[in-house]
Amino acid sequence: MARIDVTVRGAGIFGLSVAYACLQSGARVRVVDPHGPGAGASGGLVGALAPHVPEGWNPKKAFQFESLILSRSFWPEVEALSGLASGYAATGRLQSLADARAVELARAREAGAAELWEGKAAWQVIPAAEAGAWVPPSPSGVLVRDTLTARLHPAQAVASLAAAVQALGGEVVREAGDEGAVVWATGAAGLETLSRELGRNVGTGVKGQAAVLDLDVRDAPQLFVDGLHVVPHGDGTTAVGSTSERDYADPSATDAALDDVVARARAAVPALAEPRVLHRWAGVRPRAKSRAPMLGAWPDRPGHFIANGGFKIGFGIAPLAGQVMADLVLEGRGRIPEGFGVAASLR
């Protein structure tokens, strides 16, 4: 067997995206994960690919914007290779606005998006009556509609990407040693390991809980209401979530915190009042100290690299994160924003 050029440790969204990009550049790649693809935080339920607000523009927001636009071609290409659905669709998002101050701020953001989003997507303030029947209650009578937000089904997307990696000749295995360059994309456990080895805290895990309800509005936009994401999926279900818990005893157990999420979603969106809960999920998402993704070379360990800390935006930035990490690992080229670099979590 030919020598492996890149070993990727971790078969979540970051690890698989790096593997996919390295394979597209001609490298021989092996992904190693003892638990299989999507066993950690990447196997969640919500799948909201939502942008940051279009104000205070900076390289990190520009990177996220570029990746969300790239997603429009990335996921269809992955599906074509794998033959498996990812659940991706650019369905947009509606957000309620509570009062006149919120409307004023939203209109300022509308102007910012018109300039910064390059005509590729829009952030619009619209009358609630224009949005149809699937709308969040909005005391102001108007909503934000953005067309940059998209959705995917996390577990389906990871399975599709893992199959695409294999279709390109990559390996996805449970056990193997290191060969070639090594990319560590091992989630919350990886942040703990990195903290121990560097003798400082570089990040931690944050528990999240979410639920899937038996409601088929698959072509409707996402809703963001009462701090919750309500995401219609292409399989005829609707996901709601999520919590952010720093303190927890059991990382995989759902509890009263999720009951509260479901109750709030039912209260905010009348169509959710009756559908039954089909599935409950809990998992630990990796949050780097900088609260931004952690991409780059492992300090003082030549040939080793880190792709971690996706937290709530991992799926949204993964297509571009995979590309820039492949450029760094294979060619030594870097265009990772400083705020997404490893050093940002070492300060």
UniProtKB/TrEMBL annotation:
The molecular function terms in GO held by this entry are: oxidoreductase activity
Which is a Pfam family this sequence falls into? DAO
Keyword Oxidoreductase present in the record's keywords: the answer is yes
Q: Show where the FAD dependent oxidoreductase domain sits.
A: 5-328
User: What Gene3D superfamilies does this protein map onto?
Assistant: D-Amino Acid Oxidase, subunit A, domain 2 (3.30.9.10), FAD/NAD(P)-binding domain (3.50.50.60)
> Quick check: keyword DNA-binding in the entry?
no
InterPro entries on file: FAD-dep_OxRdtase, FAD/NAD-bd_sf
Q: Name one GO cellular component term.
A: cytoplasm
UniProt keywords (A-Z) are:
Oxidoreductase
- Superkingdom, according to UniProt? Bacteria
Q: What is this protein called?
A: Glycine/D-amino acid oxidase
Upper classification of the organism: Bacteria, Pseudomonadati, Pseudomonadota, Alphaproteobacteria, Rhodobacterales
